[in-house]
Amino acid sequence: CTGNGICKCRVCECFPNFTGSACDCSLDTTPCMASNGQICNGRGICECGTCNCTDPKFQGPTCEMCQTCLGVCAEHKDCVQCRAFDKGEKKETCSQECMHFNMTKVESRDKLPQPGQPDPLSHCKEKDVDDCWFYFTYSVNSNGEANVHVVE
Question: Of 7, 72, 131, 135, which one has the fewest beta carbons inside 10 Å?
Answer without folding.
Answer: 131
